[in-house]
Amino acid sequence: MIVRVSMAQGEVARMAREGFGDFVKAVVDAEQGIMAIGGDLHADMEAVLREQCGSANERLWGINIYPAKSGSERIEFDSMINLKPASGNRSRGVEDAAVREGIERIVKALTPE
To answer: Following DSSP, what letter does each residue of 65-89 receive, concatenated?
Structure first.
């Protein structure tokens, strides 16, 4: 599912329960302010955003959302698609604090707690 506007409250929790149990995978386009959510693999959602939305690979970041948690524990920055050595990101996390903050703002706007 591609999310461009705020999801209904509780929708992320429902998706988590039906998927992995306590979390849902998502890929955020930090430039366009959109995300794909609910896929089995971050790589699949990354491909959907590139193909359907024209997203640039260097602006796509894989995360896990834990709807039962709040604050800094709600988003986990851990995905193989985050390995972008050519862009300076050499881990599965998101090393740039400004990019992390931007992702957090997007997720908060699109997935109300």
So the answer is: E-TT--GGGSEE---GGG-BGGGTB
